[in-house]
Design a protein that fits this description.
heterodimer, A: Rossmann fold, about 35% strand, elongated, B: MetI-like fold, 2 domains, about 0% strand
């Protein structure tokens, strides 16, 4: 399989050839195109992308709020594309929480179990357990309107976890919280996932949130999945320009290919030095062809002029405390940003200074066209 | 120079028009209520405080008769209209867009737009032909006519309430294993209660108050309070009518106040 899964029935979610089209004819809108995705059991999986990329639509298709136009959706091996949301063992944490305003916190949490026809004692016991899990025991008899945003968030989590679903879907659940609370809830979510062992599918547009929380990430744009992998793979080995640009800061350099070996190419850097650059899977550019390589700002070091792989002239320096961003123009006129850690009290380079840029071993990546 | 936004209070004559409007609206009512407590028969001369006209009204069997008929007619018509209006509101907000949606909206609200006299005459002819065909002369005609007239008044607050309900609440219920019927019973309906109560009360007041349609549709001996009062006033104007009207006003005020309180309640 594309994402390296063995595709057995133990996978939490398996999506094949999924399309979602709204409307018909000329006014039709393709929200999702050719989605193939396998999410393993117990994984913290993140759908990452800008607003309008289709990540929420994909989540709603998994939940059953939207029917796929084409393709299949399996949950724990069972085909569910034709089933309503009440027939799927997945629960959702909504962006606006969607707590039932006329019920108490405890009634909200017990709702799913009551609908499943569980006994009174089981509902009461699980509700109490969930209240403990999200540390809301004291507020069990409150109404949602009497809770703060963070507390509502916890109730929404407890309500969705109470029926012990196979998969928990989270639709940008932290976006309504302020920064401090968001950090706190990020840790809380990781803890809950570890304690319950439930597969989490998390939707966010916040790349930092995705990097810090996920086991694996799928980066989406314009209704397609562009790349999937661990946070390390996504950050260090982006295969598409969009992915490299969306996650972290990146330098893009257009360089000619000198020669091609298995999986790597020698490229000619600005200034004439050659360096190896890893090729994306299946790519074999011809020698002489221009390709785009990416280098993260922290992967280049500031060295005295004449040393290093590339030479440049400083155009500006921006001091951030822990590091300084040095903007430079390379010898062939391309721009480059370098991030220098301020380990000691170092002087920032001034505009007009000539500098050398040293690249770490194997940091260059060639992007897909 | 500060550019000021348009403000209606700065239009010349605003104060005068406002006062005139309030006087025309409320002074007649005030006079009516005042003279219902008059000791004499005059509608223009105050002769001292008395409750005699209220006593007379309560002792009048005909008044009791028509009042009870009015009340149960209003309850029946508003009740049926509320059920139908709830279904109509659900049918026009909880489904995808469909052809003829606007037409249905217009049809539901037709009684608000067609002059009452036209509806009255149309009903008169329609009802007469049914009476001839079936021989049935009961209250069914009035109940049906009032129900039709009450539907839009019940429909509007219910629809307004449904439109402000977060659709995610129903999705969350479905996500938590509620069948469509369970989701409606446990989530939509309880949250809709303020709208339904408001719709019922509005329909109740409208039915209680309707003269024209009742006048055209009623058979002999089916007078409601307003048509009875109209009939009495043709013969003689007595302060007894003032007393009845004042009581009528008090009842309407109670219901309208309840409507206001209920429709103001949000979310709870």
């Amino acid at each position: 399989m594309k994402d390296g899964s063995d595709g057995t029935a133990t996978d939490a979610i398996e999506i094949v050839g999924l399309d979602k089209v709204y409307g018909q004819g000329a006014g039709a809108f393709r929200a999702l195109t050719g989605i193939d995705l396998t999410i393993r059991s117990g994984e913290f999986f993140t759908l990452l992308g800008p607003s309008g990329c289709g990540k929420t639509t994909l989540l709603r298709v998994i939940a059953g709020f939207e029917n796929p136009t084409e393709g299949s959706v399996r949950i724990s091996g069972e085909e569910v594309a034709h089933l309503g949301p009440n027939k799927r063992q997945v629960n959702t944490v909504f962006q606006n929480y969607a707590l039932f305003p006329h019920m108490t916190v405890a009634q909200n949490i017990g709702f799913g179990l009551r609908m499943l026809g569980r006994s009174r004692t089981e509902v009461a016991a699980t509700t109490a357990e969930m209240l403990r899990l999200v540390r809301m025991e004291e507020l069990a008899q409150r109404r949602p309107a009497e809770l703060s945003g963070g507390q509502q968030q916890r109730v929404a989590l407890a309500r969705a976890l109470a029926p012990h679903p196979r998969v928990l879907l989270l639709d940008e659940p932290l976006s309504a919280l302020d920064l401090k609370l968001r950090k706190e809830m990020q840790g809380e979510l990781k803890r809950l996932q570890a304690e319950t062992g439930i597969t989490f599918v998390f939707v966010t547009h916040d790349q930092e949130e995705a990097l810090t929380m996920s086991d694996r990430i799928a980066v989406m744009s314009a209704g397609r999945i562009l790349q999937r992998g661990t946070p390390h793979e996504i950050y260090h080995a982006p295969t598409e320009r969009f992915v490299a640009d969306f996650i972290g800061d990146t330098n893009f350099l257009t360089v000619p290919v000198v020669s091609v070996e298995a999986g790597a190419a020698q490229v000619e850097l600005p200034g004439g030095r050659t360096a190896p650059a890893r090729l994306p899977e299946g790519a074999r550019p011809a020698p002489g062809a221009k390709v785009t390589v990416v280098i993260r700002p922290e992967q280049a070091r500031l060295v005295p002029p004449g040393e290093g792989e590339m030479q440049g002239e400083v155009t500006s320096s921006v001091f951030f405390g822990t590091d300084t961003h040095v903007h430079a123009r390379l010898t062939d006129g391309q721009d480059f940003v370098l991030r220098r850690q301020n380990a000691g009290e170092l002087a920032d380079p001034s505009p007009g200074d000539r500098i050398g840029l040293a690249l770490g071993d194997g940091v260059l990546r060639v992007l897909k066209d | 120079m500060a550019r000021r936004s348009f403000e209606v209070r700065r239009i010349p004559g605003f104060g005068a028009i406002a006062i005139l409007t309030i006087v025309l609206l409320y002074v007649p009512i005030l006079i009516l209520v005042t003279f219902s407590f008059n000791a004499g028969r005059s509608q223009a001369e105050w002769e001292g405080f008395s409750l005699q006209w209220y006593r007379a009204a309560f002792a009048n069997e005909q008044v009791q008769d028509v009042s009870i008929r009015s009340l149960w007619l209003a309850i029946a018509a508003a009740g049926i209209a509320t059920v139908l209006a709830t279904l109509a509101a659900l049918g026009t907000t909880r489904v995808g867009r469909f052809r003829g949606q606007t037409l249905i909206y217009a049809l539901v609200n037709q009684p608000l737009m067609v002059p009452e006299v036209v509806t009255g005459i149309a009903l008169l002819i329609f009802v007469a032909s049914i009476k001839v065909a079936t021989g049935y002369m009961g209250m069914g005609y009035l109940v049906a006519a009032h129900t039709a007239f009450c539907i839009p008044f019940a429909y509007l607050p219910i629809r307004a309430r449904l439109e402000t309900l977060d659709l995610n609440l129903e999705r969350a219920a479905a996500d938590l294993y509620a069948s469509p019927v369970q989701a409606f019973r446990h989530i939509t309906l309880p949250l809709l209660v303020p709208g339904i109560a408001a719709g019922f009360m509005l329909g109740f007041v409208i039915s209680l108050d309707t003269v024209v349609i009742t006048e055209f549709v009623k058979s002999a001996g089916q007078d409601t309070l307003p048509t009875y009062m109209l009939g009495q006033l043709r013969r003689a104007v007595t302060p007894e009518m003032n007393a009845i009207a004042s009581l009528f006003l008090a009842l309407s005020l109670v219901v309208v106040t309840a409507f206001f309180l209920v429709s103001r309640r949000r979310g709870a």
